[in-house]
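Shape is hard to put into words, and the shape of a protein is harder than most. The fold becomes a row of whole numbers, each drawn from a learned catalogue of backbone shapes. The outcome of that step, for a single protein, is printed below.
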Amino acid sequence: MTFEETTTRDLATEDLTTRDASEAPAVTDERADLLAMLAKHRHFLRFTTRDLTDEQAGLRTTASELCLGGLIKHMTSGERSWGDFILNGASAMGDFTAMTEADWARRTDEFRMLPGETLAGVLADYAEAARRTDELVATLPDLGVTQALPKAPWFTDTHWSARRVLMHIVAETAQHAGHADIIRESLDGAKSMG
């Protein structure tokens, strides 16, 4: 079954433990645990968009600027950026302390559905980013390899290992899945659980 087919049917009956993991390369131990946890939280994030129109995916339902499609776009960008960081270091992300207002405006656009964007397209991009991250987890020779972090006012560490980056992606996905659940419940009362 393709990703697009799974997003158009009722995901409530889906096996959370195997869906994404079955699409990733076979791995064991720590890597398998990272991939399984990431798959679980990705599922919950995507699940919040079930049965929605493109317009609904772009609606703000709380005081926040966040919408469901925008959260998925943000996580797509995050997985891509952090994957590039693991492979190429801080130069892949740039210097956040030197960003202009126009740079920040472009970054803000990843939190909203823009004209011409569709939920199906956003979900397909996320699936591709997830596939790439899963492949990186499976094939990276050493999860302990470190890179210097880019300049940013929110980093207190100077270096992160690939392992730490992957744990960050898991945590960020889980956090945004929670945000998405609130947005969805505010939209039409639908919940991920309960």
Notes: The longest helix spans residues 162-188. The chain has a mean pLDDT of 85.
